[in-house]
Amino acid sequence: MHPHSTPGSSPSETASSESTSEVFRFDDTGALLETHLPFPRRQGKVRDVYDLGDTLLIVSTDRISAFDYILPSGIPGKGELLTSMSRFWFDAIDSGQIGGRLKEAGIPLAHHLLSAEVPAVVAESVDPGPLVGRIMVTQKAEVVPFECVVRGYLEGSGWRAYQDSGEICGVKLPAGLRQCERLESPIFTPATKAEEGHDENVPIDVMIDQLGAETAEQLRRMSLTIYEDAAEIAARRGVLIADTKFEFGWHDGRLILIDEVLTPDSSRFWAADEYTPGQSQRSFDKQFVREWLQASDWDRNSPPPPLPQEIVQKTTERYREGAQRLRGEW
């Protein structure tokens, strides 16, 4: 018998007996900030990850982070949008739109997603309603301790590094490039995974030293291929993918793609019809949040303030626009 069930109770009765307010915490806008399911949990900045034994349950909440802090305000619907976008790209892998060249080269591309349906063992324990549309059931994997970053345009930490040295992670770039300029070819610039604070960009030699040349080369090749194929798909829908980061893990002796994939939380998306190199671009992510915090009197060393409703609304609309453009609904 499930530890939360009672003799003679049906699954629906068991679920309804579990107090939703104890399992799910929402803010005043209806954003889901926390989940407390009766399974072992690991909590990240945005996702709550539960161990279901043979699989993992990844719940995308509506939490939002900035400058390495989780904010007290959520972005309503953000978790569902992130999940739908990851599923969009996983479906493209399954259909062969992404990774076809890898398969031809004898390197089939696999990912960790098994299902987006709420598992019975979870639905029997809690009200599944708040989880619908925001969960992924995935395979377990031994995580590769590097972020696999691919850059197709010059922005963010890459732009800062280029200004300082003319290169990014040991990759020498032509002189005279402008902010947000498209690179002649996408470049692979790995980063170490930090438990706290920022990841650190490193040359691929660091990855080779730790993982071996064969594994590092496979990660580089897989990352560049996924990015290039995804960028073609996005471009047909009027979206530019400036850069992105992938995570991989070992499962049954092979590397598979894990975590979220090509979402506004792991990538920069720009509208192709607005793209103007030489300046920062309007992006489909938490740009409004970062700009508001930078303009506020917050010192970045204390708990961050709640977001004004206007900023929450604008950020929600920005995330939604990016997802709709990718789905061809814009």
Automatic annotation (TrEMBL):
Keywords: ATP-binding, Ligase, Nucleotide-binding, Purine biosynthesis. One of its GO terms (molecular function) is phosphoribosylaminoimidazolesuccinocarboxamide synthase activity. Pathway: Purine metabolism; IMP biosynthesis via de novo pathway; 5-amino-1-(5-phospho-D-ribosyl)imidazole-4-carboxamide from 5-amino-1-(5-phospho-D-ribosyl)imidazole-4-carboxylate: step 1/2. Its EC number is 6.3.2.6. It catalyses: 5-amino-1-(5-phospho-D-ribosyl)imidazole-4-carboxylate + L-aspartate + ATP = (2S)-2-[5-amino-1-(5-phospho-beta-D-ribosyl)imidazole-4-carboxamido]succinate + ADP + phosphate + 2 H(+). It comes from the Bacteria. Residues 1-21 are annotated as: Disordered. Residues 43-302 form the SAICAR synthetase/ADE2 N-terminal domain. CDD domains: SAICAR_synt_Sc. It holds the Pfam family SAICAR_synt. InterPro entries: SAICAR_synt/ADE2_N, SAICAR_synth, SAICAR_synthetase_CS. The keyword Hydrolase does not apply. Belongs to the SAICAR synthetase family. This is Phosphoribosylaminoimidazole-succinocarboxamide synthase. It comes from Aporhodopirellula aestuarii. The gene is purC.
